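User: I'm curious whether this sequence folds into something compact or stays loose and floppy. Could you predict its structure so I can see for myself?
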Amino acid sequence: MSSEPENWKMPVDLRDFDDEFARAQSRPPSAETAYEEIPDGVYETRIEDVTLNRTSSTGNPMIIWKLRIRGPQCEGRTLSKVRVITAKTVSFVKEDLDRLDMKLEKLSDLNGRLDEMVDREVRVFKRTNPERQWSEVYFLRGRKAPQSEQRAASPSPWKTGTDDDLPF
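Assistant: Here's the prediction. I'll summarize afterward.
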């Protein structure tokens, strides 16, 4: 005995939709860019949200950063950076936090300081690993939030091109 409903075995007649289908407009491929994969590369972003959660499979703690791309390529789109916290990844967690100028005495202090990372500007590098079929986002350098007292009134060194160590 089959568990499928009896009406699933009947042929589907779609003729009632023919007129609407003829009038329907299909979006051109360029209109779908918001759903396409963000290309690998370096992006200027702003941290929009930071959460501390647990992985569904192992229950390990993880930090999730939601990053809004500031442009010009992919402006307004978002990237997510996820860092699972284990004994093997603690040094990577510390490196991520150091690049965001988050100096902690103890990792357990992080939960009460997540909001300090919100609105911070950070340059990231997105790379897709073709063998593993997933992407990773790396923090390259962070900037204090615009309302930070340490931020100078002068324009951002990134915009003026003076924040590098290149000799030319």
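Summary: Confidence is low (pLDDT under 50) at residues 148-154. Helices lie at 18-23, 90-99, 157-160.
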